[in-house]
Design brief:
- Helix 1 packs parallel to helix 12.
- The chain is built from 12 helices and 21 strands.
- The mean pLDDT is about 95.
- It folds into 2 domains: about 240 residues, FAD/NAD(P)-binding domain; about 120 residues, Rossmann fold, CATH 3.40.50.
- By secondary structure, it is of the alpha/beta class.
- The protein has a 5-stranded parallel beta sheet with strand order 11-2-1-14-21, covered by helices on one side. A 4-stranded parallel beta sheet has the order 8-7-9-10, with helices on both faces. It has a two-stranded antiparallel ribbon with strand order 3-6.
Length: about 400
């Protein structure tokens, strides 16, 4: 099978790269194992929350100069960094992913533990705060569903109390959720969300919680609305008497699963080929150029392309593996580098071309969390690196195609 571009990895960076290439008229395939880090998403994309030394970041653009030179953001450059950050929300809207107004500054969202975390671009489902020490309510009603253990009411309550909000907690018992609880050994967020895909079940919920909320300013619920689209959340808001504040649950994440689905749907609507549930078994590299790849499901059918993009992630998604006490990139055998404070990543040049044996592979690119030079958890930049490197590499491929 011949394509203009083959993207290996169907997470956030891989799908966004594929979508932008398809939008530009290139014929693209995405090879995806199926599950990605989006399944663990807390409902927002973080750009840069703090510097490697722990210094909090308010303005990510101003902070770029304080990052090391091999950080993906430094390689993208400040002007392109700002430009791509402005292009990301409209692209997400084209995928039916509703996000809040994007400013190039950090504000705050509530985590699953009730803490305030700096963020850049939250989904429309979630409340955004300018001050991490204050909330805009005096009294909150915090509700959970009977038998649902992935919503941590106690730490959320304690965190809100510490910010001056009076809290009352209660349990909501709905027949539809109770049926699930009796049938399943464990009630996960996805199970609960499946109930509220239907407006009649949301109406039943509203009948219960509206009378309960009459003495409160806001109703706090777990983020289990909108498994396939944001329509369930929007309908719930339209039916409620009081303001709604959703708080992320423990994984799997309903907003993350929804985002994965919407990105896949957009890619396929644009004519992209999604090889879902598949993995790359081997690659052919000759004269510092990728000639083709073979996947498990496609057998001896070779996938060839002008360009290849590696978006397989880090250890979590097996983009990097440990063999014989050595960290390796398992598909191409790309050189791996390690730094004490940023961990492992594949070696690339300034244009994100990976290196094998110290030699650049001219038609291969690496994007997302497989890259070196940053600590996604400490710096709070996982989503931002995934999105911006996808933009950087897709733009480079598009420009090369136009020039040729």
């Amino acid at each position: 099978m011949k394509f203009d571009v083959v993207v290996i990895g169907g997470g956030l960076s891989g799908l966004v790269c594929g979508i932008r290439l398809q939008e530009a008229g290139l014929r693209c395939a995405v090879v995806s194992m199926g599950q990605s880090e989006l399944h663990y998403s807390s409902g927002s994309f973080d750009l840069l929350s703090q510097l490697p030394d722990g210094t909090p970041v308010t303005d990510p653009v101003e902070a770029l100069d304080q990052l090391e030179e091999d950080h993906p953001y430094r390689r993208i450059g400040k002007l392109r960094f700002e430009h791509y950050a402005e292009e990301i929300p409209p692209m997400l809207y084209r995928c039916n992913i509703l996000v809040q107004d994007a400013l190039l500054e950090n504000r705050y969202r509530i985590t699953s533990q009730g803490q305030m975390k700096p963020t850049w671009l939250p989904f429309a489902d979630f409340q955004l705060f300018n001050n991490p020490h204050q909330m805009p309510w005096k009294k909150a009603l915090i509700l959970n569903f009977e038998g649902f253990t992935d919503f941590y009411v106690q730490p959320i309550t304690e965190a809100m109390l510490s910010r001056g909000v009076q809290c009352h907690t209660d349990i909501v018992a709905l027949p539809s959720v109770e049926k699930l609880r009796q049938r399943l050994t464990e009630l996960a967020s996805v199970n609960v969300a499946s109930v509220f895909e239907y407006t009649d079940q949301i109406d039943e919920l509203v009948k219960v919680i509206n009378p309960m909320s009459k003495d409160y300013d806001v109703v706090v619920l777990p983020a289990v609305f909108g498994l396939t689209s944001s329509a369930s959340y929007q309908y719930l808001c339209s039916r409620m008497d009081k303001e709604l504040c959703l708080v992320p649950t423990m994984p799997p994440s309903v907003p993350g699963l929804r985002t994965q689905r919407q990105l896949c749907e957009r890619f396929c609507r644009l004519g992209g080929t999604l090889l879902n549930g598949d993995t790359v078994e081997r690659a052919i590299v000759e004269n510092h150029e990728v000639k083709g790849i073979f996947t498990v499901n496609q057998g001896e059918v070779e996938l060839t392309a002008t360009h290849f993009v590696l978006a397989t992630g880090s250890f979590f998604s097996h983009g990097l593996v440990t063999e014989d006490d050595e960290v390796k990139e398992p598909i191409f055998g790309i050189d791996v580098q390690q730094k004490a404070h940023t961990g492992f990543g594949v070696k690339t040049d300034a244009q994100f071309h990976p290196m094998i044996g110290g030699q650049r592979i001219k038609n291969l690119y690496a994007i997302g969390s497989i890259l070196p030079g940053f600590d996604p958890m400490r710096e709070g930049c996982s989503g931002g690196v995934a999105l911006l490197t996808a933009f950087a590499v897709s733009n480079r491929i598009i420009n090369q195609t136009v020039e040729s």
